[in-house]
């Protein structure tokens, strides 16, 4: 296997793929929906639209006056550095945990790109039902959520199994 696809590089490449997909979909959303109508995907439930999020998740601190851009940027940068080291230190045979971490890393850096470049994060996926609206989100948010869910699933259901396989591979 070429070194580029060996651990940990394969996981960093997955994170890069998430970043590129996130940026490409955000550019597409800006072109399609910034000045135009929303696109109904599943009427009454899912649409593509355009929104700018100046805060964190669910627009937390969106009206804080601007300092939050740099605060959330610094948090994302520090967190990303921790995840990069975490992935590097994982045993070679692991798949689930580094995949989850790569998704989280790619999502964090995708949103960080927006935050540093624009001062806000571009969102475009809207889930709603009647008068209820979930906060608008993007591909980076999906990657972070899926990665976090994968980590929780591993912690709850597979932690002992992964620790045992790590010990066995270390003994060989």
Describe the structure.
The protein has helices at 9-33, 67-89, 96-118, 139-171, and strands at 39-42, 46-53, 121-129, 132-133. By secondary structure, the protein is an alpha+beta fold. The protein has a domain at 47-56 and 65-172. A 4-stranded antiparallel β-sheet has the order 1-2-3-4. A hairpin with a 2-residue loop joins strand 3 and strand 4. It is globular and about 50 Å long.
Concise overview:
By secondary structure, the protein is an alpha+beta fold.
> From the alpha-carbon coordinates, what is the Rg to the nearest angstrom?
18 Å
Query: Which word captures the global form?
Result: globular
N to C succession of SSEs: HEEHHEEH
Determine the structural class based on helices, strands and strand pairing.
Answer: alpha+beta
Give the CA-CA distance, first to last residue. 20 Å
Q: Give helix % range.
A: 55-70%
Assembly form of the protein:
single chain
Average pLDDT over all residues: 85
Strand content: 5-15%
Low-confidence stretches: none
Function: This protein specifically catalyzes the removal of signal peptides from prolipoproteins.
Organism: Microbulbifer bruguierae
Membrane topology: Multi-pass membrane protein
Transmembrane segments: 70-87, 99-116, 136-158
